[in-house]
Amino acid sequence: MANITRYNPFNEGVSLREAMNTLFEDSFIPRFGLTGRGIASNLYETAESFVFQMPMPGVTPEDIAITTEPNSVHLTWSTHVTQPKNATAHWSGFTEGEYQQSFTLPTTIDADNVEAWYENGVLTLTLPKAEHVKAHRVKVLAKTPVFA
């Protein structure tokens, strides 16, 4: 025998509280390149150095300030966006602003010899490792035992 239930149109509705929660959850759009750790970036390690890459669209080399310490890098930059005259913005996810981010490196670097270049919207840093942390090859010498 089937159960008969009465139709209630309010059962299909959503409470105002649920609607507002869904509205805020669904409308959050993260800025370009942001992750839980900040701006998306890459850090590669070679035998001699670290190579750091970070996308920075809308930035000129003059807008970037880099400060290095023996085990960290601090970046400050600003973006500039110009809207064409008499244009209507339909969305604007890439905004003008000032940004900064610091990175702690896995080991000590030679902060005086860091090189930086900006190409195709990507900042690349070469961070040479400090001499005392580089691997050194040790030559084994043969020693003839001296018997008395």
What sort of overall outline do the alpha carbons produce when their principal axes are compared?
Answer: elongated
- Summing up helix and strand content along with how strands pair, one would put the structural category as mainly beta
Low-confidence stretches: none
Report the CATH architecture of the domain at 34-82 and 96-133: Sandwich
Output the strand order for the largest sheet. 3-4-9-8
Radius of gyration: 28 Å
Please summarize what this structure is.
By secondary structure, the chain is mainly beta.
Explain the overall architecture.
- The structure is a single chain.
- The longest helix is centred in the N-terminal third of the chain and has 12 residues, at 16-27.
- The chain has one helix at residues 16-27; strands at 34-35, 38-39, 42-45, 49-55, 64-69, 72-79, 97-104, 115-119, 122-128.
- The relative contact order is 0.18.
- Helices cover 8% and strands 33% of the residues.
- It has a four-stranded antiparallel sheet, with no helix packed on it.
- The mean pLDDT is 82.
- Strand 8 (115-119) and strand 9 form a beta hairpin.
Features:
three-stranded antiparallel beta sheet, 33% strand, mainly beta, elongated, 148 residues
